[in-house]
Amino acid sequence: LSAGAKMGCFTFIKVMMILFNLAIFLSGGTLLGVGIWVKVDGESFLKIFGALSSSVLQVVNVSYLLIVIGAILLVIGFLGCYGAQKESKCLLMMFFSAVLIIFIAEVAAAVVALVFTGLAETLLTGLVTPLLKEKYGVNDTFTHIWNVTMTEVRCCGLNNYTDFNNSYFYETHGSYPRQCFGVSPPLAHSHLCGCLLQGCFNQILEEIKTNAGVAGGVAAGIAALEIAAMAVSMYLYCRLDEK
């Protein structure tokens, strides 16, 4: 290619890099704002987006998750956008390194999720079960999130109904949550009839397996974008030496 063609190609890729990372930066700001909103006013968020409460995000603290993801996207978007605009080799290398670390972490998480599902269940049990015993029936937002999750997914607790044994709710009401039975009124000692629902972890795992194709496609798309972003940043980084 002629020098003019090379310069035109460089300029085009630079502009695309700026626009792409500007979109990432704005997305990060949006997620960060939503995360802060959920943290400050979780009840309003659940009323508006109640249908999302059946997802796995509602098992954990969605506000902190959104804040962390939003902050990471803000940093990556800034590094990529400003680094390309200013043609800064330092910022481009920082962008490349950040995306590479995230890519490796995602691959590692996927391997762990596939190979060590039992370990993931053990870790979640150690984290979530104590919260169910202490906060369910005490914290209104936490209780509402779990009520909607158990209703939508038709499940009980994280592993099963025994997660509520010796809990504040069971000690206070003498029964498990009504969502555990799939009926409106809570039934005292209904666990004796064997009509309690399965745990939410297994139910969510089944939903993930059912939609594995879609989830795999989304993951592959994200991985392709990350690889492309790293390739473009390296192209710009190397071309700066030739300018």
TrEMBL record:
Instruction: Identify this protein by name.
Output: Tetraspanin
User: In which organism is this protein found?
Assistant: Dicrurus megarhynchus
InterPro entries assigned to the protein according to its UniProt record, in alphabetical order = Tetraspanin/Peripherin (IPR018499), Tetraspanin_animals (IPR000301), Tetraspanin_CS (IPR018503), Tetraspanin_EC2_sf (IPR008952)
PANTHER family per UniProt = TETRASPANIN (PTHR19282), TETRASPANIN-1 (PTHR19282:SF216)
What is the protein's membrane topology class? Multi-pass membrane protein
Alphabetic keyword roster: Glycoprotein, Lysosome, Membrane, Transmembrane, Transmembrane helix
Stated role: Structural component of specialized membrane microdomains known as tetraspanin-enriched microdomains (TERMs), which act as platforms for receptor clustering and signaling. Participates thereby in diverse biological functions such as cell signal transduction, adhesion, migration and protein trafficking. Regulates neuronal differentiation in response to NGF by facilitating NGF-mediated activation of NTRK1/TRKA receptor tyrosine kinase and subsequent downstream signaling pathways. Plays a role in the inhibition of TNFalpha-induced apoptosis.
Principal location listed in the UniProt entry: membrane
Q: Which SUPFAM superfamilies match?
A: Tetraspanin
Q: Where in the cell is it found?
A: Lysosome membrane; Membrane
Its quaternary structure?
Answer: Interacts with SLC19A2. Interacts with NTRK1/TRKA.
Q: Which gene encodes it?
A: Tspan1
Where does the UniProt annotation place the signal sequence? none
One Pfam family of this chain: Tetraspanin
The entry assigns this protein to a family as follows: Belongs to the tetraspanin (TM4SF) family.
**CDD domains for the chain:** uroplakin_I_like_LEL
Q: Name one GO cellular component term.
A: lysosomal membrane
Q: Where are the transmembrane segments?
A: 12-38, 58-79, 91-116, 214-238
At the top level, the lineage of the source is Eukaryota
